[in-house]
Amino acid sequence: MLTCEQQKDLATTISHFLSENRRFTDSFIIDFFTEDLWGKLPESWRSVLDDLTYPQVADLLLDRSLTQRRYPSVWPLSLLAHRSAAHALAFPRGSGSKTCGRHAPEEFLQNQSQSSLLEHIFRKHVKPKKQHEICRLGALVKRLSEETEVSRVVDVGSGQGHLTRLLSFGLRLSVTAIEADPALVATATRFDEELRRTLEKRETWDTAAPPSLPRHVAGLVKPGASWGDLIQQLDFQDTHEHGNKRLRGSDGYPPVSPDFLLTGLHACGDLSTTLLRHFVHCPHVRGITSVACCYMKVTTADDPAPPGSVGAPQTSQQDCPPQFGYPMSSLVRSLPGHQLSYRSREAACHALEDYLCKLRQQSAVLRAHAYRATLEAFIREVRPDLSRAGIQTGRKSHLLPFADYARLGLARVGLSPDLPVDSQRVESMLRHQNRVVVFYSLCLLLSPVVETLVLLDRMLFLQEHGFQSQLVPLFDPGFSPRNLVLVALKTPAS
Questions:
Q1: Which residues lie below 8 Å from residue 22, measured CB to CB, with a gap of 6+?
Q2: How many CB atoms within 10 Å of residue 273?
Q3: What is the pLDDT of residue 246?
C-alpha cells in the first residue's frame, strides 16, 4: 500500500512519462499507413522490433511477469528503459489465468459456464464473467458491512440486478438498487421474484426471518447532483421501521437516511466519479467499493461531452466550476502534462491479458488491425471526410480475403463496394502486418499506465478530503480486464 507521499510522487512521474509518449497514447492504429506511424519510432527501435515473432512481442514487450527474457538481438537501452518504466509505473493487476486456451479462473475448471464458488440459484441468467465478479465483490461488500456494522447497501448501475440478488438473498443485506434503464429494472424485478419462489420451496427456507427483497429504483444518478438528490432518489421510507435515528430539522424531526455502503460494479464513465463524490460529501455513506470502466466516457476540461457520456458536467452551485470526471484531485490537476486524450482513455479499457494470449497463439484475429489500416488509406484518398469512420464488418471479417473485406467495409461507409483498390499496393501494405501488431503492442504497453493515473487521481481525491483508500486487484484480469476495485471506509469519527 502506497503512502500519501508515494501516491503523489507516482502521479507526478506517470504524468511526465505519459506526456513524453503521446505518440503511443494518442495514436489510432488505423492511421498506421496514412500517418506513417512506424516511421515515428526511433530507427534503433525499428531495427530490433521489425523481425519479432508474435510470441516474442508478448514476452519481450507486454508480459511484466517474466523475469528472464531471451532477446534475438541486442536492444537499445532506450527501448529497454521504456518498457521497464511502463511495467514499473502501472498498478499490479494480480495474476491471471495461466493457460491462454483457458481464459476462466479455477472456479470454472469443472464447468466452464458455472462458478463452483457460487450457488446455482445465483448463477441463473448470469454469464460466467459476471458470476466471477459478483462472487468476489459480494464477499468484499459483506466484509465491509461487518467492519462498519452497516447492513444497508446501495448498488448503483445495477443492471439486471445480479449483484443485488446475491447481496440480498445470499448475504442477507438490505439492498437498494438504482438503474437508469427502466427495462433493466423490470428484468431485475422479474428475476428477483423467480429467485424468491425458488427459495420458498426449500426446506431450509426460514419463514420467520426471510431475507428482505431488494428495492429497485429506476433513475439516473447525475454527475454534479448533490448527495441530497441521491438520498431523495433512494427514498428510504422504511427508516422508522428499522429504528434509525431521526435528526432535528427546522420543521421538526424529518426522517433521514440510515447509514449505507455504496457499490458500483463497472459503473460507466462519470458514474464512478460521482459515487466517489457522494462518498466524500454524504455523511450517511460509510464505505464504497468502486469498480470503474469506460474511461473514454469520463468528462475532462478538453473533452466535456465525450461520445457515450451523459453530457457536459453540471454542478449544484452556480459559483462552483464544473465537476469533471478527470482529473478529480487538485494534485493531478496541477501537474504539467496530466491531460489524457479520448484515445488514451479508450485504450486504457483494452484487455491486455487477452491480447497476450492472441500473440502467443498467433491468432488470425491479429490481422484485423492491418486490414483496417489498409482500407483506411484507400478511404481517405477518396473521401478524407470519412477518416476514422466506424466500420462494423463482423467478428470474423479478418478471415475474408482482403478484397471481400474491402467491399464489405466500403459499403458500410456509403462508398461503392466496387471502388478500385490497387491489389499490388494492398499486398505491399499487408506485408507489414507484423509492424502493425508491434506498434499496437507499444500502444497497449502504456494502457495500464493510463489506467493507473486515472485511478490514482481518484485515490488522491479521497486523500485530499481526509479519506484513505486501497486499490484491490479483485478479479482475474484474464477474465475480467477492469479488475481493480477502489475501496474506502469512513471511521465513526469521520
A1: 341, 344
A2: 26
A3: 38
pTM: 0.91
DSSP, collapsed to helix, strand or coil, labels residue 479 as coil
> Rounded to whole angstroms, how far apart are CA atoms 166 and 390?
38
Cα–Cα distance, 387 to 492 (Å, whole number): 55
Q: Alpha carbon of 95 to those of 205, 351, 353: distances in Å?
A: 38, 14, 10
Find all residues with CB under 8 Å of 320, minimum gap 6, and list them.
Answer: none
Which segments of the chain have a pLDDT < 70?
A: 96-104, 203-209, 237-257, 311-321, 492-494
The residue assigned the cell 521489425 is 50
Beta strands 484-489; 285-293: pairing state: antiparallel
pLDDT in tens, 457-473: 999 999 999 999 999 99
| 177 vs 184: CA distance, rounded Å | 11
Question: What does each C-alpha distance from 253 to 247, 268, 397, 455 come to in angstroms?
Answer: 6, 37, 65, 40
Q: What tens digit of pLDDT does each residue of 18-42 get?
A: 999 999 999 999 999 999 999 999 9
Are the CB atoms for 184 and 220 separated by under 8 Å? no
Residue 336: partners with Cβ closer than 8 Å, 6 or more residues away: 15, 16, 19
Residue 311's pLDDT is what? Answer: 61
DSSP states of 369-431: HHHHHHHHHHHHHH-GGGTT------TTGGGS-HHHHHHHHHHHTTS-TT----HHHHHHHHT
Cα distance between residue 361 and residue 387, in whole Å = 32
C-alpha of 226 from chain center: 25
Helices (H), 417-494: 423-430, 433-445, 447-464
